[in-house]
């Protein structure tokens, strides 16, 4: 079936799903394959649960007119999303970077929503499946969209950018993450820079943190200069007022402007750059400064990202959705500035670092040895393989939970941070 013909079916059924357990009435089911499953086998079930159509790529499952047979379901999903984006034709801002993508996306969406009807990437659905689903969730009622794109291998941002066809974009930062896939820090920079390549090639513009030397260099290599503000819009100036634990900033658009102050619900001085991005984007698209301030002050982080939680026994800084050497380093630096009677860190392994893994984990251990912490627990096989004395090591989160059941912690301010695979997000219930 031609994409234009499938698109007509999509207009009749403008809701898609790839999960046979979640089948909105009248939606289209895309039977994706994975390493351990074949979505084609669940297509009939999806139709019984409420889907109107099922897109499959194995003829034996296409038993009646409710099935749409294609060569490759994933490729068809992506092509349909790109086609829909072109038909929709309104402004999309694309975000990538090593750290802060999701928080920056949500802050920007919150600010833009003060003036526009905005659709944006939910959660971290920023990959080859999540991005098409985000694009297909955009409807005629939306006036703008903010799309997050992630990668762990070269070429992925370029491929996603070809689907998104953004009008503008930004790279939050570049750091030492996914080194196993990228090969080196230079590989990270090249891949994140693929967003700049795409925007430059189509005559679009970027928002730039010109205080970041890596981003400044990457932009300059592609012909973007902060002096040409029609194509390269530098972030506004901002400074940290307080961060103990919640971040309060001041910002101004021009050097002669008065400083505006905003108290946020974010933890971590490193979030000042994410806030600067949101202010800059908001101002460019005509959101009033007072509305920007209101959006930033009301934003509540979720999903174990820079969250501050008060329990019956402890104060928690939960940043357990993801971790890499760069984000771990800044989280520990920020934690060192927080005033508390008893401070503790529970850190999990950093994943996908390849041959650099041992060295990068040892760097974190050495940083911890120089900090004034009352206790440190390190969780995962990477830490357990090192000499982490005098700190305690645990093979996995289950061992930590068992320890907490036997000897609960009380009266601590605790930083909980690790890659999602270490599952430290389970710990707040036991702290």
Keywords:
six-stranded mixed sheet, 431 residues, single chain, 20% strand, alpha/beta, 15 helices, Protein-Tyrosine Phosphatase, Chain A, UDP-N-acetylmuramoyl-L-alanine:D-glutamate ligase, six-stranded parallel sheet, Udp-n-acetylmuramoylalanyl-d-glutamate--2,6- Diaminopimelate Ligase, Chain: A, domain 1
Structure description:
By secondary structure, this protein is of the alpha/beta class. It has three domains: 3-71, 3-Layer(aba) Sandwich (Udp-n-acetylmuramoylalanyl-d-glutamate--2,6- Diaminopimelate Ligase, Chain: A, domain 1); 89-236 and 266-298, UDP-N-acetylmuramoyl-L-alanine:D-glutamate ligase (3-Layer(aba) Sandwich); 307-430, Alpha-Beta Complex (Protein-Tyrosine Phosphatase, Chain A). 35% of the residues lie in helices and 20% in strands. It has 15 helices and 19 strands. Strands 6-7-5-8-9-10 form a six-stranded parallel beta sheet, sandwiched between helices. The chain has a six-stranded mixed beta sheet with strand order 14-15-19-16-17-18. β12 (246-252) and β13 form a beta hairpin. α6 packs parallel to α8. The longest helix has 17 residues, at 185-201. The radius of gyration is 23 Å and the shape is globular. The protein starts with a helix and ends in a 14-residue tail after the last strand. The model has no long low-confidence stretch (mean pLDDT 94).
